[in-house]
Amino acid sequence: MTDHELARPRARERARADAADEWAPKLVALDIDGTILDHDQHLSDRVRSAVRAVAELGVHVVIATGRSLHETVPVLDRLGLMTGWAVCSNGSVTLRLDPLRSAGYEVADVVTFDPKPVLTLLRTHLPTALYALETGQGDFLLTAPFPPGELEGAYTRVAGSFDELMAEPACRVVVRSPEHTSDDFMALTASMGLHGVNYAVGWTAWLDLAPEGTSKASALERIRARLGVDAAATLAVGDGRNDLEMFSWAGRSVAMGNASDDVKSAADLITSPVTADGLAEVLEALLPHPKAMERRSIGG
Fold it and tell me: Which helix (H) or strand (E) element contains residue 193?
């Protein structure tokens, strides 16, 4: 990694251990937005090449994102990942990638919940917010169209009523209130005492709700167990508050330089921002070629 990265004390201790045991991950979990893609949805050639190179080493590269199934698959295609696993909808949906299937994947796990109690509570506090319910098939039922560029496409439709929205089992609920800030949402969720769900506040006034006990980490743990990977041989890279559980789960965690301070403080290391190919810095350090060996190890 570059000289400007900020290592926490725990990471520096791990650096000394890494020098002795040459730690290398067997499973790498990668967030998409703000990590693989920048906020203009750009994927750099360097990042794509680094992801492919690590996968070709035999490391299990697992995409772990808040995106729905339909929003995740095109990114897998852009990366050229055709086999393995992907976690969608903040852990509510897990895909097994299989190029022999017509869609290129099968849905391995889906977790849903009854959204009525939490939607009723949220609407009391946020009557003008936009609400979207994601089904286990990756489709969205909306109360009204979201801002341009958010939840658009063939997989969205507007519900006839709020009651119709609450009647559907949900794998995720999205709450969007353009008139509020991310800090407003943080304060609101803390004061409301949301029960029976997992939730994460985004970098805008965006709230993701998932079934209780469900997160990127819970889905990744099931994948890790299926693959027989040692818990310590896992690496996670992300930039959002929905990556915090994933950081705690991973043997090593790296926050992107564009992450908020609370996310950075939860990680072992901080790499460069997504606009400076920070993910590539992390992945290239895992490669056994001269260019990678010149870089500092991810342990410190």
Answer: none
User: Each residue of 197-254: pLDDT tens digit?
Assistant: 666 666 667 888 888 899 999 999 999 999 999 999 999 999 999 999 999 999 999 9
Query: Which architecture does CATH list for 116-211?
Result: 2-Layer Sandwich (3.30)
In tens, the pLDDT along 169-181 reads: 999 999 988 778 7
CA-CA-CA-CA torsion for 282, 286, 291, 293, nearest 10 degrees? 110
Residues of the chain with CATH 3.40.50.1000: 9-111+215-293
Query: Which DSSP helix (H) or strand (E) runs through 266?
Result: helix 261-266
CB atoms within 10 A of CB 265: 11
> Which are the contacts of 50, defined by CB distance < 8 A and separation ≥ 6?
279, 280, 283, 284, 287
**Token pair for 185:** 């949402």
In the chain, where does the domain assigned CATH 3.30.1240.10 lie? 116-211
Q: What is the pTM of this model?
A: 0.84
Two tokens at 297? 């190890």
Residue type present at position 233 = A
Class of domain 9-111+215-293: alpha beta
